[in-house]
């Protein structure tokens, strides 16, 4: 979907990095390593996205860190486009809303860090029928053509682990 609209694979990777999780920050050399791209191509895209106002930067010692500009008028639209590209909208529609006593759903793993690894890891919090959840996951996998892994924990377990992991909130009852 995005490949037809945006011809630069590097730019697509950056949009996924910064707009999957708007709290993600990155710097030039880190992105070059993560994407296995040259620093020149990364610099070019960082400059383009920064000039357009989609990214903001801040100096952190000798490095310049970039992050999504959450104040940009198109921020929500870009975030929504990236989520649709990843299939997160379908996951919410076909898994999250169909589960019973679900308190929250989080993205964990690579996608929570803004990395497109191909496997979406979900942490589901609540009293959930695991067999039913796995059936819903299989259907969603076919819809979005990505691997989905789930971990189900109770609300009490979540309250104990909340400080240990840094998930990206996908959905909550609050």
Automatic annotation (TrEMBL):
Entry's Gene Ontology molecular function annotations:
DNA-binding transcription factor activity
Limits of the HTH arsR-type domain: 1-88
Report which superkingdom the organism of origin falls in. Bacteria
- Gene3D superfamilies named in the record: Winged helix-like DNA-binding domain superfamily/Winged helix DNA-binding domain
- Which protein are we looking at? HTH arsR-type domain-containing protein
Species in which this protein is naturally found: Chryseotalea sanaruensis
